[in-house]
Amino acid sequence: MRIAMIGSGYVGLVSGACLAQFGHDVVCIDKDARKIESLKRGEILIYEPGLDRLVADNVRAGRLEFGGDLAGAVGKADAVFIAVGTPTRRGDGHADLTYVYAAAGEIAQALRHYTVVVTKSTVPVGTGREVQRIIRQARPDAEFDIASNPEFLREGAAIEDFMKPDRVVIGVESARAREVMSQVYRPLNLIQTSMVFTNVESAEVTKYAGNAFLATKITFINEIADLCEKVGADVHDVARGIGLDGRIGRKFLHPGPGFGGSCFPKDTLALAYTAREVAAPQTIVEQVIDVNNTRKKRMADKVVAFCGGSVAGLTVGVLGLTFKPNTDDMRDAPSLDIVPALQKAGAKVVAFDPEGMKEAAKLLPGVIFARTAYEAATNADVLVVITEWHEFRGLDPRRLKEAMKVPRVVDLRNIFDPAEMHRLGFAYECVGRPAVSRPQGVPT
Fold first, then answer.
1. Which of 82-91, 262-271, 287-296, 390-399 shows the lowest per-residue confidence on average (mean pLDDT)?
2. Contact, 181 vs 172, CB < 8 A?
3. What pLDDT sits at residue 436?
4. What are the Cα distances from residue 74, in Å, to 49, 161, 215?
5. Which residues are CB-contacts of 228 (< 8 A; sequence separation ≥ 6)?
6. Domain 2-198 sits in CATH 3.50.50.60
7. Contacts of 186 (CB under 8 A, 6+ apart)
8. Catalytically annotated residue among 18, 28, 228, 263
9. Are 321 and 338 contacting, i.e. CB atoms less than 8 angstroms apart?
10. Are 384 and 319 in contact (CB under 8 A)?
């Protein structure tokens, strides 16, 4: 099949490359000429494991190309995917659909034969109908159907998620559109992937409902972690105890400093806004948003309290800045709340992140960036773990202790063993685990 992908950002590029791997002829379109030229040179501007090789392989095979000619690509396509950004609109929390609707207007002028216009971007319910209206108003003669095909890609594991998904959700309202979309995802039939066909509105709500539920699980276990700290329970034991219940499940029950990223903060806000608009307020989701925002800000207070009530004049080493491992994405990362708060409290921050420091440098002025985790720990009065990169789990605590001015660690991701850290002489604070008496001679 011939596919046009409008938007060559994270979702568009990953989806386009994976659809090309399925055997389709894909053209990824973007208005950013510099981005297109970089992609043509084989330069991937985002970090996603395996994406550079996937793109190169399919470009070499002639199935994937990049360009700025929307009309030419759409005019030849059997399916056109809209994968442009839908950032949070300033002032009200609603998703900004400017780019989606602009793309719909351009697509309308370019249609030359029957085409399925698919919304891949995360959009509030009702967006598909508006896309349909825009196209129909501009081109009453056009032969097309709309569809909603939300993405469920985890940054850091996006290719695996696309190629071997739990399910594919497709909102359509004609047999012809259903057949086209079935052909788009035909290779997944070989691995018996569940195809969930719905109407357009149901597909749109499914995306938001899924992300809101996962955000709720994260927020729930974070609040349980707070309880565990007060009563001497271990949140990891609690999470395992409830996660083995098949009705609950073990995923997304890992305590930390709060959720961030390009999806959960934006999507929970958009869902809450849309629901209020139609007089169906999502009070649980609204509470999740408030609790999560508060938690990220409280994590800096946790560090300050552990340092005896002040970090003024102290050097704080920070491990991890991105919102999660295996990405360079800094959007709504907890570090964006924690690091500035520590700086405001008078600390000097020295940070290391395996992939995110280039982006972080744009957002965190005044931070000193280290070349390694051990360099970030050198002469530190306290070391703070914000992102659980796998390489941090392999750090040698003895070497960290030798490098630090004061052996003091605030582990917001629970990557170290508390008993071992205390045995080695660290003052160690984690999340949702019972306190262990601090070793003698270590300042608090």
1. 82-91
2. yes
3. 58
4. 29, 26, 36
5. 234, 235, 238, 432, 433, 434
6. no
7. 22
8. 263
9. no
10. yes
Residue 441: band (very low, low, confident or very high) from pLDDT cuts 50, 70, 90 = very low
Q: pLDDT tens digit string along 216-235? A: 999 999 999 999 999 999 99
pTM of the model: 0.91
Cβ 331 vs Cβ 262: under 8 Å: yes
The Cα 192–Cα 258 span in angstroms is 35
**Do the domains at 2-198 and 292-429 have one common CATH topology?**
yes
Is residue 28 flagged as an active site residue?
Answer: no
* N residues, the chain: 444
174: its two tokens: 């004609």
414-417, long-range: CB < 8 A, 24+ apart:
414/236, 414/254, 414/255, 414/256, 415/385, 415/388, 416/385
CA dihedral 402, 404, 407, 409 (to 10 degrees): -120
Strands (E), 7-143: 25-29, 64-67, 79-82, 115-119
Q: Tokens 């409902």 correspond to what residue?
A: 209
CATH fold of 292-429: Rossmann fold (3.40.50)
As given in the structure block, the two tokens for residue 149 are 């095909």
Distance, CA of 72 to CA of 58 (rounded, Å): 20
pLDDT in tens, 310-319: 999 999 999 9
Tokens standing for 357?
A: 């420091």
CA pair distance 272, 287, nearest whole angstrom: 10
Q: What is the mean pLDDT of the chain?
A: 95
Domain range list for the chain: 2-198, 292-429
